[in-house]
Amino acid sequence: MTSLKFLILVQSISILAEKFQSLLLLPQILMASFQTSFNKHIENTHKRMQEGFLIKSSSLLTISLKKRFQLDFDGLATFVKSSHLFKFEQCAHGSVVVFRFWSTGSPWKLAVISRIFTMNDLPVVGLFNWTGTVASIGVPKFAVRNTINAWSKISGNFTLHGFHPKDIELLFVNQIRGIPIGNCHFCPTTRNVKDRGFQCLSLGPDAFKPKPPSPF
Prior knowledge:
Number of domains: 2
Largest sheet: 6 strands, antiparallel, barrel
Strand order of the largest sheet: 2-3-7-6-10-5
Structural class: alpha+beta
Order of helices and strands: HEEEEEEEEEE
Radius of gyration: 20 Å
Number of strands: 10
Oligomer: single chain
């Protein structure tokens, strides 16, 4: 091997190593961004752990929070598990969720519900799985538009799949930070009135707007 070819090979390996290292560090970088955006830590009022989900790609970064925090509205798109499960449309149509497969332990994904039919002979959970790209500010690119007038304008960012309920773990969520993905402004009740700590929405899970096509 000539010295020139050897030098090119070394440079190629170095570039690949840098790219691989940056991929490994991405979750830590996102986590640091999440942590440093907190205004202050609030004294715990309960022992329950809160689950948070950040957009890093079509797969979500999961964070388990053991303390209460105040959080700015601006930043990476961030979701928390909703514990107020009511005020659903029929078959939960249009609800915003995160899901993953039980069997493989795959990363969490963001989705909008098409339908949940649990009483069918073959139960099915229909999901519009978000498969789009992320803007530089850490939100889905389609959400950067000022107004989304119709589902048809953004449908290319989602893929419709049907799953058996036993095959997936599914959580209803509220978005608490970043540009709202569904044409909705943040509701004030995502912040506690006493200590301003973030929390899930008391009015139930997020409902995506504009609504996806109806399954009925």
